[in-house]
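Sat 14:20. Reprocessing the chain from the morning session after the first attempt stalled halfway. Input below, unchanged.
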Amino acid sequence: MNLPKEWSNWLLVVAVITLAAGPLIFVRGAQFTGSDDQAEKAISEVHPGYQRWFKPIFEPPSGEVESLLFASQAALGAGVIGYTIGLYKGRSQQQRNKE
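Finished this time. Tokens:
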């Protein structure tokens, strides 16, 4: 199946949007909570008097701010990884061109 490059890119975009929106559309009434919330609930059920060993340095004022910080951290990490891969790929191509 030989599709033009721009069609392939659009198909990938549609696939990513479908994968992101699919669970939100087809799974009604589900609780999309993070693993931190689930772990906290499980610990409080198993050991109701549990006290944390450490307190957080910074407590975000709301869940939205916490989500923003998490997404920013993920984007920064993806950017660093993408830059590193591109840098090494460029170096290897330059090395190949010199030879």
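The chain has a mean pLDDT of 86.
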